[in-house]
Write a structure and sequence with these properties.
Blueprint (H helix, E strand, L loop, with lengths): L1 E7 L8 H6 L2 E17 L2 E16 L4 E20 L2 E19 L13 H5 L3 E20 L2 E3 L2 E7 L4 E3 L1
């Protein structure tokens, strides 16, 4: 999927003829590719997906923004109700991502295109990459006695951006 267009950086309905002739043009492009699969069975589901996202923006005579991101995600959820008084569920989610962002400062004009190009709106030059791994797992027991339910559970997560276990 994708979206591409060119537009004036300012709002044309409030610019006079001279202002609109000198206003930079934003060339916007946003593209995604998603590849994946899923499997459902009686007591659960498994999903895996790879997503590529690319957003490129450029202002004529000014700055540009280029975001390129790959993400690989896997998720498993399972549950069972082996007895009338007991059930359980458990699962995990894992995400690996590789993101690269390059921004060339566009000055004041960057603020005018902040909805489409947030990197340009910040007005800070960037050339950086980040590789990130996130993993989380959970488990829950369900003890059932009529309308009363006791549901103890645990969730653990790890994110290389924070480098510590979250509970």
């Amino acid at each position: 999927a994708g979206d591409r267009y060119d537009r004036a950086a300012g709002e044309l309905d409030v610019l006079d003829a001279w202002e609109s002739s000198v206003t930079p043009t934003l060339s916007y492009a946003n593209n995604f590719q998603i590849f994946g699969g899923r499997h459902h069975w009686k007591n659960g589901r498994f999903v895996v997906a790879a997503v590529q996202h690319r957003r490129q923006n450029a202002l004529t005579g000014s700055g540009s923004e280029d975001l390129h991101d790959w993400t690989l995600t896997s998720r498993l959820d399972a549950e069972d109700h082996p007895a009338e008084w007991f059930a359980w569920d458990a699962g995990y989610e894992a995400r690996l991502s590789d993101t690269h962002l390059t921004v060339e400062d566009a000055g004041y004009s960057g603020i005018l295109v902040g909805d489409e190009a947030p990197g340009l709106a910040r007005g800070i030059e960037v050339d950086d990459s980040m590789k990130r791994a996130r993993f989380g797992t959970y488990g829950t027991a369900h003890f059932i006695a009529g309308d009363l339910r006791l549901i103890p559970g645990v969730r653990l997560g790890y994110d290389t951006a924070g480098s510590h276990v979250l509970t």
